[in-house]
Amino acid sequence: MKKVLYIIIGLVIFTGCDDDFAELNTNPNIGVPPPETLFTYVQKEMVTYKNGGEWYHENHQKMTWAQYLVQGRANDSDINTILPGSKYGTFYVKILNHLTEMRLQISELSEEEQKFYQKMVAASDILQAFFALRITDQYGDIPYSEAADGRREGKLDPNYDKQEAVLMQLLDELNSAIQKMDENISSSYNFSPNDIAYQGDISKWIKCANAVKLRIATRLLSQNESKAQEIITSVVSDGRLFESEDDQFTFDLGGTYRGAPGADFEWKGVMWSAEPLVEFMKSTLDPRLRIFFEPNGYTQETIDTFADPATISPAVDIDNDNEVLYTTADGEDIMGYRYIGLPAYRNDPNINVPDYYQFQDQPNTVGSNATMLSKYNRRLIQECRFRYGGLPEPQGNYIDVMISYSEICFMMSEFILKGYTSGDAADWYRKGMESSLRTYNMYGEKQDLIMRVANKEYPYLPLTEDEITNYLDNPALQLNDTDDLEKVYIQQFLNFYRLPEEGWILSMRTGYPKYGSSLLARSETDNPEIPFPRRIPPPEPGDLNVAKWLQANTDQGFTSPRDETPSVLNSQRLWWDKNNPAIGSGGN
């Protein structure tokens, strides 16, 4: 890991500013680092917290759109407007061009030397396919097959590939990568010191390639079902799937990396936990509740400050919402009323009742002004160095699980329930729930999710084996031929809390969580409901390629490439999304 970090530090000189890319991509005489160093740099730049996930654009927007969180006073402002963010630029400036340069350097070596580097090249193909899927997921038709031909070939007006063609090319690249990794090579470069994700473990890279293929299959289900089933069948036949948390596609830069604050996560409004999600997690005694969200400040000390407990807001129902959710290490019982989510419905009758909800975040305050509503766990989502009310800087490090074992388990359970493959859907489902709990517990421990509430320090409380077993055995969560597919979707939705982009895609492709569900229900945001964007307009490329950009938008049926009106971004859908159900309809 130390060697990896030294390489990353050295690369700051190489790519310190995005503006340098124009020259780097057109001048072949500029010196570049060796291929293994480029491979490391790309992995470092893919970390979700930084450029890969745009934590203050995408996390803020899609966490509210999917109703993981609520913005402001029950989504009372421009919740459905967008800020495109930087992911598109990250792909072209920091990922695709560097991986292309890496491969070009290797292609100029002798045939024997090319074989020597072949498995690292294959891993680079998987990295690229993984991130390219994230780009086309949101932008549709994109420059891809010609997108990295600028520096060596002077191609500054690459064609926009159709989304369907992009997805097919990604599948070809993943299949080719697996074949390259399977080949028996007498002498192969050991790229483990350069590999943040898998430390050069080829077997895990192959499993990761198959995981990306299954993600692609979910995008094809409503547009090309036969191709989706072909992918699922081939992956199942291959058999090399994630088998445990050890196989997960994880970026861990070590104990020195705690993230950076960047712009304010709450750039469009203060964020609170969403009432529908919080209440569902409380009703099922989901131990991830204390990982996702912060308890409020209504400790017994706060309650005792009220001369008459009857004067406490009904939002904090100490008489009825008093089931013990868990007990802290020092013996404090955390009751249900310690987790209060904010309604996602703008017209909730209690929103404007004076003192019904209190919209302040005061971790050091005890009494009537104590924090009432539960916040998102800021050290889980924002940065590990976040300090609550004067707590010392924590010692945890930020980690990203980009594809989890639990995601694979839930996809397999879904595919079996839909008849695309055979197997035990309930077994995959149970394994997915267990793995999700264990993965989030890993986040809690490694990111040191200590917090302060009502002037009291709450160290991270690890999940116990009893909590995990009790959750898995909860009768309300079992597959029993009643709403089985919905139960799988809900658990996948919960699992995607740290990947809100995937949670939003799940909502788009399935229609779940759905309005009026007896399980986890999506809430109306307004009446009539407001439209939420289902895509992001592709950035304008500049004069050299503006004509092809305009044509690509026309080809996709977009009336204006510059139109960011939410209703337009909802109705004018990308190719993969055209046949998917409406958000909240539960139609797929």
TrEMBL record:
Disordered as annotated region, ranges: 553-572
Alphabetically ordered keywords of this record: Lipoprotein
Gene3D superfamilies assigned: 1.25.40.390
InterPro entries per record: SusD-like_2, TPR-like_helical_dom_sf
Name of the protein in question: SusD/RagB family nutrient-binding outer membrane lipoprotein
Organism: Arenibacter arenosicollis
The organism's taxonomic lineage, starting at the top: Bacteria, Pseudomonadati, Bacteroidota, Flavobacteriia, Flavobacteriales
